[in-house]
Amino acid sequence: MRSLRRHPLLVPVLLCACAVLAARPATTNDTSDTAETAATDGDSALSARVTQLYEEAAVATRHYEAGRRDADEQRAKAERLEALLDRQRAEIAVLREDLGRIARAQYRDGGGMPVTAQIILADSPEELMRGQHVFSRTNLAVNNAVEKNRRAEARLTADEEMAKEAWRELDRRSTELASLKQDIEAKLEEAREELQGRAEASVAAGACRGAVRLDQPETHFASRWVAPVETYELSASYGSGGDRWARRHTGQDFAVPIGTPVRAVGEGRVVRVSCGGPFGIEIVLQHPNGYYTQYAHLAAVAVDQGERVSTGQWIGQSGSTGNSTGPHLHFEVRVTPQSGSALDPAAWLADRDVTLG
Questions:
Q1: Strand 268-275 versus strand 292-301 pairing type
Q2: How many CB atoms sit inside 10 A of residue 334's CB?
Q3: DSSP letter at 211?
């Protein structure tokens, strides 16, 4: 047997080889972890973008609706101005008729005679004074009528210009608001499609991509219980029948767009997060009173299994995964974590002072 002493470099070489072999799996895991972290960060960024655009769209819609109400008020104001203009035009026509009548009266009564002629033709000083008084009064009436007519015409011109400017401003604002709303909604629709695409890939793989963390605004709820989504339209209700379900519908559906933040109806603990099967991406919460709530057909989850949640906390985003005919949230109340123990969620929430509608 050869002695190791004859090969002084052999020991360091063997030690280096062992070190490389030992480090190789760790390097592979690090690469896998880095890729998974990058994917999760990408999902979080996309979910955050959808949430931000969702809020921006809501704000734009509120501004648009406010602008529409302003437009209605402006339209009513313009109609009032038009009515005022009609009255002013009628008043001006009356004033012009009055001027003609006064002028004709002056001519008949001699109001147009020179003062010298009136002095010569007057039979007495009293008659002269009466004539002068009538003349002065008539002249004052003419001057007043002329001045009133001038003011009315100036006011009419100003009101007409005000009405035109109001309509021009209304058109500008309506165009700007409509363009802003359409731009945000187009971006939101694109982001929703990407979010749904990633969700469908997770369901197809049967593995969740990990929780995304949403920057939820600070909220304070006076009640211990809330509806699972803030704004919605109710669709399929508990117990309803149809070809879509093997038996009866086991929950309450909330028709909402993809990416809508989904809330925990009450405080509790996450006992299930899954991404596959008929419910698609789903979350099940356990509540302190012994009941469970399920949130299904999601596009993303924002909590991990075992995590504790508070009332109204965002736990995911709605989608259309699994056996779903369109974007909505399927919400169930159960007495166990598993299917088959569902209660009427609308009645259950009503008992906790949450009325759906």
A1: unpaired
A2: 21
A3: P
Q: Give the C-alpha separation, 346 to 238, whole Å.
A: 8
pTM, to two decimals? 0.63
Q: Are 350 and 265 in contact (CB under 8 A)?
A: no
Looking up tokens 């003062």 gives 115
More confident of the two residues 113 and 251: 251
| Tokens describing residue 61 | 């819609």
Nearest-angstrom CA–CA distance, 331 and 68: 35
- 318, 257 in Cβ contact below 8 A? yes
- Give the amino acid at 242: G
Cβ distance 263 to 313 under 8 Å? Answer: yes
Cα–Cα distance measured from residue 131 to residue 129, given in angstroms and rounded to the nearest whole number: 5
Q: What is the mean pLDDT of residues 272-295?
A: 95
Which distant-in-sequence residues (6+ apart) come within 8 Å of 101 by Cβ?
none
What contacts 331, CB < 8 A, 6 or more positions away? 228, 251, 252, 253, 254, 265, 293, 294, 295, 296, 345
Q: How many whole angstroms separate alpha carbon 240 and alpha carbon 251?
A: 9
Give residue-wise pLDDT tens across range 216-240: 888 788 899 999 999 999 999 998 8
Dist. CA 125–CA 41, nearest whole Å: 108
Tens of pLDDT along 257-283?
999 999 999 999 999 999 989 999 999
β-pairing, 308-309 vs 292-301, is: unpaired
Q: What percent of the chain has pLDDT over 70?
A: 75
Orientation angle between helical segments 125-205 and 10-109, nearest 10 degrees: 160
Residue owning tokens 């304070």: 220
